[in-house]
Amino acid sequence: MRSRTAILLALLLAGWPVLRWYELRVFGGSDERWGILALLAALAFAPWRSWREPLPAARWPWLFGALVVYVAALPFAPPLVRALLFVVALAVVGADRRAPVAWGALLFLSLPVVASAQFFAGYPLRVLTTQLTVPLIALLGQSVEAVGTTLHWRGEQVVLDAPCSGIQMLWTGLLFSALAACWFRLDARACLRLLRFTGATVFVANVLRAVALFFFGTGLWPRFPGHHSGVGLVFFGAAMVLILFRAEKIGRTNSVTGEVTDTPPVAQPRPVWQFGLIGLFMGAGLLPLGRGAGVSPEHRGDFPGWQAAPIKAEWRAHPIGPREARCAESFPGRMNVYTDGESVFVVRWVDHATRRLHPGADCLRALGFAITPGQILARPDGSRWSTAGAANEHDRLVVRERIVSSDGQRAWTDVSAWFWHAALHPDAGPWWMVTELAPAD
To answer: Does pLDDT of 340 surpass 80?
Structure first.
């Protein structure tokens, strides 16, 4: 293995499980495809010329360390964690001293991380955002109370829904800053400074966006067509301008100029390194072949029967079609489908916190539907439902969804909020998730 190109090709061959998972996750439709932009950007900024040179001596220990951790994590780590470790190994080999962290950040952002970030971090971020809006709204003359992700004002409730977590805004901001860091050739320390600034700036912009949406949502400020998305674009655009100015300022004093290369290179690693590297490559490629099919989708507790489900008397059983079957894939619980003659209701039962309780919108996205997030729907019976639009060339649907506890005392409009409750209160289950698929008007 005389060149970095050969090592990269060997890495890609050994990491076939990650590449297969990436293809299924991105092109299978279960996650957003925006990561492809980051991957194309990484290829555009790749140091193609230096890949013909030997791997610098200082990088061999880092490469071995990354591969050892990757191989050790294969039997038990989730696919996304394995992919992150694999990306670290790729970055160690592929990056040069001109913006190495920025190039690695582009590889990281190319992974399908948005859905997982929304699932695990969406609810905590919304809780924090809700709390921070209270003093800002008070400065503008209104007194509100924050309860979870809900603002209480004069008997009204304003809910910060899943898009208000700012996950998508943060991903886009990090992509923008990584591109700027590559363009200005920021070194590792300068790039980390820019990424920290980006995270803080996007978070503040999202809090200000939530404050503005409160005033528009309550009618204190006059609404205008498209105010919900328009407000987000204004604050996001302002954040991107600040990030660009910050990147340019850091670049004037901290960028790496000239044709900087790692020194000293070595033509070939020592035999111990070479044999160890070959062994790690073989382990990375062959170990997944001996693994089982994964975690069994069996539930843990006793299923109470569908008579205990939050279904209405006029609902009748409905055959499970491709849309509904997608929600049942690897689901560790029970599922049934009903209809009232117009809408289809997918009812799922689960008795423990699990990542496999996918939102209905994610299931439809995997079937090729374009998803448009909606606002929280409050029905006359007092129940609240998350909403989203789903459309393909044949159908246009409205997706409404909620999760309720078995005793009916607690309800959630998104899976992130439910997951944290279920993880912190494992004895509070089981829970029912109802997903309504209604024809769009």
So the answer is: yes
Indicate the residue among 263, 290, 317 that finishes a domain. 290
What's the one-letter identity of residue 210? A
Q: Are residues 279 and 315 in the same domain?
A: no
Q: Please report whether residue 93 resides in a domain.
A: yes
* Adjacent-strand bridge partners of 434: 347, 402
Is the pLDDT at 298 greater than 50? The verdict is no
H or E segment and range at residue 167: helix 167-183
CA distance 278 to 11: 10
Residues linked to residue 86 through DSSP beta bridges, in sequence order: none
CA 182 to chain centre: 23
Decide: residue 186, CB within 10 A, 0-12 exposed, 13-18 middle, 19+ buried. buried
Query: Is residue 153 in some structural domain?
Result: no
Q: Angle, to 10 degrees, between the axis of helix 16-27 and the axis of helix 79-94?
A: 120
What are the residues facing 186 on neighbouring strands? 255
Taking the CB of residue 271, how many other CB atoms lie within 10 A of it?
8
Residue 379: per-residue pLDDT: 87
What pLDDT score was predicted for residue 7?
86
**7 φ, ψ to 5°?**
-65, -40
pTM for this predicted structure: 0.83
Tokens of 103: 């190039």
Helix (H, G, I), strand (E, B) or coil at 123: helix
**Closest to 157 measured CA to CA, from 406, 409, 413:** 413
Structure tokens at 356: 């496999």
User: Hey, what long-range contacts does 69-78 have (CB within 8 A, 24 or more apart)?
Assistant: 70/284, 71/280, 71/283, 71/284, 71/287, 74/17, 74/284, 74/287, 74/288, 74/291, 75/287, 75/291, 78/355
